[in-house]
Every structure is written in structure tokens, then in C-alpha cells.
Amino acid sequence: MRLNFTHDIRRRVRQSAVTLLELMVAMSILTFIIFGLYSMFDKTQKAFLETTTQKDVLESGRSFMDIMVRDLEQMRASKLIDRTNLYIAPIYINNNPINGFRQNSMQGNSLFTNVVQEFFFLTKTSQWTSVAYLMQPMSTNSSDYSLYTNMGVGSLRRYTYTTNEYYHPSADLFAIYYTNSTGSDFQLVADGVVHLALRTYDRDGNWVDTSGWSYTNTFIPAWLELEVAVIEPKVLLQARSIPNAAAQRAFLQETTNRASAVHLFRQRIPVRTAN
What we know:
The protein is of the alpha+beta class and about 280 residues long.
């Protein structure tokens, strides 16, 4: 009777024990679940970071666009012969315009070529003020403003100079002051700019090509169209970490082909003092 009782206990223990195969199956299922949860968490984190980055870029874009639009709306004509009211031109380095990146357009298979310009204009409140915006090209040595590289990406900077003697010939705000300005005269507005363009329109909405000449005397445009495109900060940091200029440009050209890496801001601006 005793032996039968012991044998019965051993049989029940064997029936309730976990085999090695069952343990391996359980571990495989658990591993699969853990990897699934990690993948879901990783995708959620990436989506959150991308949303945060886009939010920061959009907020920054709205900020500098507000500054530029407010300046351009206040454009005034000097009403003086041979005085520049508005000047728009490509930015030149070593007598060559900066080659902007070509990236895939949002429509079809066409390519969009980024433009790198500078523009100067006049405003007046109690005094005459000259305002200018340009894209200071990115350098592999950010502390040396004379070593610009023809990257097609840089920092948007703002220049201003005010005088109450504008009608005197020696106070030409464009020919004397702006053309002799240096990098230290400009204030940083935005970083990572790959496209800066200003187009002029008459009162009928017709585009006026200002390349090669300026608005002078009493003439200023009735409408302006401002375009600024910036790349995401993480892309800019990656580019600046590349010491070789050719490799730097190749990386930026490849990156700017992705629409998600470039954010374009555009606004049509009325010039209220236009004739």
C-alpha cells in the first residue's frame, strides 16, 4: 500500500512538470512579444521626435518670416535720382553666384532649384533706414568669416543702418554704407537656409524681373513674394561635422532631395507705399 502511494505521487509530479520543449516555446513567444513592443516604442519615439522637430522648425519659420514681412511692408521710395530704393541680386563668391541645390519638386518628377539672393531696401519713420537680408554661406570653419565655402546653405542675416542726413550725397545708404558693410554688421535671423528669393510684381500682378537692375527714384513694386527654405537642425549639425567641403556638399545635396528635410516658407506681401 505504501509503495502504491509513492508511485502515484511520482506520476503526478511528472505530469505537472514543464518539459524543455515547452520552456523553449514559451521563451520564443516572450522574445517575440518583447521585440514587438520595442519596435512599437521605437517607431512611436521617432514619430514624436519628428513631430517635435517640425514644430520647432515651423515656429522658427513663422518668427523670422514675421520679421522680414514687417520690414518689407514698410518699404519706401527715396524719390531721389540714382538712389537705390530696392536691390535684388544673387550672392556672389569669388565673382561666381552660389550654386543652390536641386531637389525633387513636390509636383511630378521635376526638379526645384534653390536660389540664393540678397536684397536691400529703404524704410522711413522719423529717419531713413536701410535694411538688407542675405544668406551668409556656411563655412567649414564657422569662426572665420573669410573662409566661405560654396555650399548653398548658410545663415540668414539682417543688416540695418539709420541716418537723418540721407539727402546729402555722402549719405547714400546703398552705394556707401551697404556695399562697404562687413559680416560683423549683420545679425543672425535663422540658420540652415538653403533658399532665399524675393520676387517683385506690379499692381496688375505681373512679375517684374529685377535681375541686373534696381528700383530707384520714385519706383518700388506694388507686391513682393518672399520665399525662404530651411533644412532641419539635425541635418545641419551632421553637415557641419563633415570636414571635407566636397563630401559636405554631396551629403547636403542627397539630403535636400528628401522633401521632409526641407521646409519652405512663402508669403505674398503688399507694399503699401507703392504708387
